[in-house]
Amino acid sequence: MCSQRNLENKFQEEIMYGGSSCQLWGVFNPKTEPNWDDLCQQLIDVYSKNGNKACVIHKGDFHALYVQGITFNSNF
Predict the structure, then answer these.
(1) Cβ contact 66:25 at 8 Å
(2) How buried is residue 66: exposed, middle or buried, by Cβ count under 10 Å (0-12/13-18/19+)?
(3) 54 burial level (CB within 10 Å; 0-12, 13-18, 19+)
(4) SS3 of 16, please?
(5) What's the CA gap between 20 and 53, in Å, rounded?
(6) Vertex 69: Cα angle to 28 and 2 (nearest 5)
(7) How many CB atoms lie under 10 A from the CB of residue 28?
(8) Taking a C-beta distance cutoff of 8 angstroms, is the pair 48, 54 a contact?
(9) 26 burial via Cβ count (<10 Å: 0-12, 13-18, 19+)
């Protein structure tokens, strides 16, 4: 699935997208996950159909998926 939740802290935990708060879902490395873009598009489609926003942010070789309406337990 995704490399790590936040690979080397390259990405913010939360961003604003289209006027909504979106949380970091995961970070993808295309060298180890060649179909990261297909997975992200599937998840964006699922979240969008449920009325939530989702987007991908690119930094260097890494890609982060952000989605609206999720929470993570920081105890993991």
Answers:
(1) yes
(2) buried
(3) buried
(4) strand
(5) 7
(6) 15
(7) 26
(8) yes
(9) buried
Is the Cα torsion angle 60, 9, 28, 25 positive or negative in sign? negative
Span 24-36, pLDDT tens digits: 999 998 998 999 9
Structure tokens at 28: 């993808």
List the structure tokens of 2. 């995704």
Rounded to the nearest 5°, which phi and psi values hold at 45?
A: -60, -45
The structure tokens listed for 13 are 């935990």
**pLDDT tens column, 31-72:** 989 999 999 999 999 999 999 999 999 998 899 999 998 765
Question: Residue 18 phi/psi, 5° resolution?
Answer: 60, 35
